[in-house]
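Hi! If you just cloned this repository, the fastest way to understand the data is to look at a raw example. We've pasted two of them here, unedited. The first protein comes first, obviously.
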Amino acid sequence: MDDDLEEKVIKQVYTSHIKFISRFAFNIFDKFPKKSSLHCLSKVLLRPEVFLAATVVIFLLCVYYQTEINASNLLKRIYWQSRSSVNTRQLKAEKDSWEKRLTQSAVYAIQGRRNHMEDRFFIEESINSSTNLAIFMVADGHGGDHAADYAKDVLIKNLCNKILETHNLSQNKENKLDIKDCDKSEEKKEEKLPVKIEKSNEVESDIIDKINTKGFSALKQPNEPQMPPPKEQEAKCYIKKDKIDYGRLIADEILLADYKLVEMSRKKMIIAGSTALIAVIDSTRLIVANVGDSRGVMCDHLGHSVPLSFDHRPQAAREHKRIQEAGGFIAFKGVWRVSGILATSRSLGDYPLKPKLVIANPDILEFELSTHRPQFLILASDGLWDTFSNEEAVAFIKSRLHEPHFGAKSLTLESYARGSVDNITVIVVVFKNGKFEFATSK
């Protein structure tokens, strides 16, 4: 009864207030002619039910407005928190980083989510102040940094010296070269180092069993066959019709460096290995040599991505066939691996899997810069390519060439933000009007 009485009182108070407001409003609108549209409209608007509906609408609008403000503030908080999270990740990545910038090239490398930094790089826009020669390298080490350091410190040094010697000799037109001895030594070399490795299970099966069951640590007294030592060629052997045969020159230097590295590693029981991606620019020639799964890509004058190298993966048909013919196998353990261990089928070092299962023979491609007229090159370790395709990397750098590192730093940090768990090294080489301006002395 009390509730009913209370409701009646509230209703009566509300009705009386509405009537009072209506009379007050009618007194205002009575000034309009009775037949006017405003007079008719006022009668409709000042009805109690219309007033109530208007009150409800106004209340809902206020609630909606307040909700919008809260939602907007919430979205802003989420946005800035995400930005803060990204910035925190970037700061963490930049903590263990290495960088270098020259006139037309830059490199940025981070340790990333790995416990150790095993990537190495080398950039030189002018091997010699009087020559139009530039060289760039990315080495992605595994099992330690010994092999990557060797590639950076020894391989590159020897390669630069051989290129300079050959280049200077080719410029000396008065010097008549006798290449007969070179041809003979080349024939002997091909006999000793056949491109196609013959199948042999004499010792390899025992090594593979050890690797498969106990890993590299079991190989304390390896008995694998010795690699035949490659013969060092004279500089004159790489000149044909006053033109340097960079394919042979670079391949010979890589194989020679690998032989010495493997012999040293065997004596010291160092199981480390490394990829090697090397780019040499000689005037309008671009030569790219690749061993392993680091990768290079070119952005040509049309903005298209042009592969500079192809990954050496165990599951690739050519590599799989070669490994099988050598008496080995590949197994899937997260990724395809040689003997279930190594994720790349070619490398420097890795002596327990040499000389048959894993080889150091490089794939070498040559490009004429005047034809492609490139905008830039990207050379990077597989830490980048785990999160970027060739086309994505080219598109990313294309819009960031104005940055201090020509986009190399941004690309590296973006790869880290996308979740790359490996070391990441990115080199960007920039061309002007399709030409590379060498850093020669003035």
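Ok, and the second one:
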Amino acid sequence: MSMHSAYLPQSAYLPRPITGQSRYSVVNLVILHFAKPMRTTWPPALTRLTCISHSSHTTLPHSAPILAGHCQAARRLTTSSIRSWSLEDLPRVSQETNPLIFHLTSDNPYYNLSIEHYLLTHSHPDTRILLFYTNRPCVVIGRNQNPWLETDLKRLQQGLPPEDGRVPQTADKNYGPIHKTQLRKNGRAVPIDLVRRRSGGGTVFHDSGNLNYSVIIPNSKSFKRSTHADMVVRALSSASSRYQFADIRVNDRNDIVMRRETESQWLKVSGSAYKLTRGRALHHGTLLYSSPYLDKISELLRSPGRDFIEAKGVESVRSPVGNLVWTPDPRKRAEVKTGITQSIVREFWRMYGGDQERRAGVNEVTLGSEECAEDTSPEIASGVKELMSNAWRFEQTPRFDFASGTVDGKAVGFQANRGVLEHLSLKSVSGGSVERAKSDFKEEIKLHDVKSWKGLITGGNTNTNTQEQAGQIVPEASALARNSASSGGGGDVPDALVKRIEAVFPRSNV
């Protein structure tokens, strides 16, 4: 893979030489066609509140603090006429103010996706909404994807080296289930969230150098996938000389791709997918503008189970990807993001704003969840809780088959649905075999929570948990022990085979 260089003029957002990067991975985008906008009158201006900030210039910080308020949303907005509206009033407010632009300062992917979903499902059917947010490091899979096929879960558990020497001191409740991070020479590893979004499409990696943008529009039959990819391309084309790429366009897959002045290869900076609800359509996309972890994306999204899993869900399509620009300085990176964001906002406003003025706090609002009090939207809090749960992340996985291949004369195969084991077999090249059905287990065997694969396969009591320490045998082990003894097909399982399975299906702590 070649490296690319780009130089920005002193008048540009980045006053120092920068180097472009490219790696192989996946970037995805949800795109839908916008119908003709509706023009309406304006409500009273919003006054400054702790959860809603506004200024004459929108500033998007590089990284927002990770506090307990991340899981919460602003409940009330107060107007200059002493009137107030809550998020539950969004249908009325969004009818009175069209279009709307939201900037989220949170870097919590569970919160940001929950806000996005709330805007999608509660805004007035005729309203156009543009939303921006940036997440902390996370791997986001599509609604109908298989996490064991799309990412290296054990690698995710190891985390990432600190981006700039700053790492969280504790993994607070907003990092989801317990992160098992490892000590590294340069400090504690940075946790990586595993997230299943509510829309379709493929798997993506997010970090501080990736801008997420969402467009919520009327669900029109005149749908055209390229409409808002073209909008983003127009916004970026105006800065092509600044960022030193020769061309940027929408390809035949409705991906956004760019090419450097000195290179012939097209690099993907955004992809495509979409989501429809009754009366509403969601377009949400990622934009790799300056990812500090670009060289890590491929290893994070390279599953060790790719040769062993046959899945029923949607599988991602890999493509060479690259940063629009590169700078290691978080401050300069934030400046680039601000410039790109404002370019996209201007194109969006040309399409739907008409002769209206963009007014901070009225039709362009910044939400900072970390500043919010506890009296927040219970629906958004419930959405965050759902996205963080293993029941959502793993147990929404469509049916799939696993075949380990033969290792030292033995092979393991199983079928699973919704992340729960349905059938398990251990076969030997000598002809012996053991078959386990779901009914053979006292309890559901959830693949993300298997304590010992060797114990599960052989029926041996090799699991280590509090029940075993008290002298009790775990349910799955005892069931398999009975079946193994009666069939005579059990026996030793090669350690190399167990390691192969554990590499694909580690016990979840991300």
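That's it. A detail worth noticing about the second one: The longest strand covers residues 210-218.
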